[in-house]
Amino acid sequence: MKKGLLIYRINRDDSANFGVIKKCKAQQKAFIQKGMKVDMLWLCKDGVLLNDTLIERHEIPPHSFKVYLFYFLQFGIILKKLITKSDYDFVYLRHPFFDPLLVWSLRQVKKANPKIKILLEINTYPYDAEPKRILHRLSLKMDQYYRKKAKEYIDRIVDYGERKEIWGIPTILVRNGIDLEDIPQSTSEPEEGKIRLIAVGNWSYWHGLDRLIRGFEDYYKKEQDHILSLTIVGEGPETAALKKLVDQKELKQFIRFLPSTKGKELDLLFEKADAGIGTLGLHRKNVAIDSSLKHREYCVRGIPFVLSSPDLDFPKELPFIYYFPKEDTGISLNEIIDWYAKNLKTEAREYAEAKLSWKKQMRAIFDWIES
């Protein structure tokens, strides 16, 4: 039985991480279903967790400067100590920005166990255009330098695109999956003359919701036969700008914002939704292939959705999706109305069950680890 350590440098107590946390737990579950023994190293507000046990106490509240100090001064030491004392066959590391301590810890791990396999998952590549805040930009500068050194200790990069190698390291090509057992199918019934849109995420500029808001502005400039509404669930760096735009366009009666939500509360919101809003601005950070978790969640819930950049799991001929151009123009609500009228009943849930489970999406990873 292969034994591995999954390293997710995310804080489970940060509500902005709900979606990512769900993904991490689903990946761990897929490894276990494959017959592997895996531990998960991640964070909470009180310190470092191994699975659900607190193994190192540190005060690291989300979005504080203490988080950066912890990463630069403590995390790599904890990582090295844990791995070198255990008999892991592989390490699966969700991409963090590299720093000198993290690179040192990887070097020590390889020195202690030259046979250990280290996989690095890069969820979005390239990512150099992604950070906007000053601290994030400084972290990126450090990453750009130290990733050149980290590549000496990484055996494979897990890529959600189509690249054969990144930084000279061979890739394993995968796509995002979904835990079907964890998400119920929506039983929402459409109302005559109404289309209720829902968008769920941790909002950044590349999600392109401003395109949709401008589409609402254009649509409601004159009287319409259909009433379209939008519920935006979740928060993020772009939320304040989106709220300001809705106020400026006087669209508050059609567009509402709700905080990050999960569990039964989120299920209830989907029971009042007809179609989902996927990523509409990925081209803004020069990423060609999309593999957004939100697309998979919409699909497994059985609701149609719109998006922009190509997602390889969702070819254009599928009846329950609609692609808009990869540009910054407003989204046409009339196109949504015309498309939705033809696709009230879809096979989205059945498609998800056949194609999108994490166990199926991660087969290439399992095969390489076991090779």
Description:
The protein has 371 residues and is of the alpha/beta class. The protein folds into two domains: 3-176 and 358-370, Rossmann fold (3-Layer(aba) Sandwich); 181-355, Rossmann fold (3-Layer(aba) Sandwich), CATH 3.40.50. Helices cover 36% and strands 20% of the residues. The chain has twelve helices and 15 strands. The mean pLDDT is 92. The strands form two sheets. It has a nine-stranded mixed beta sheet. The protein has a six-stranded parallel beta sheet with strand order 12-11-10-13-14-15, with helices on both faces.
How are the SSEs placed, and which strands pair?
Blueprint: E1 3-11, H1 18-33, E2 37-44, E3 47-50, E4 53-57, H2 65-84, E5 90-94, H3 100-112, E6 117-122, H4 134-150, E7 156-159, E8 165-166, E9 169-173, E10 194-200, H5 209-219, E11 227-233, H6 239-248, E12 255-258, H7 263-270, E13 275-277, H8 293-301, E14 305-307, E15 321-323, H9 333-341, H10 348-355, H11 358-361, H12 363-370
Parallel strand pairs: 1-2, 1-5, 5-6, 6-7, 7-9, 10-11, 10-13, 11-12, 13-14, 14-15
Antiparallel strand pairs: 2-3, 3-4, 8-9
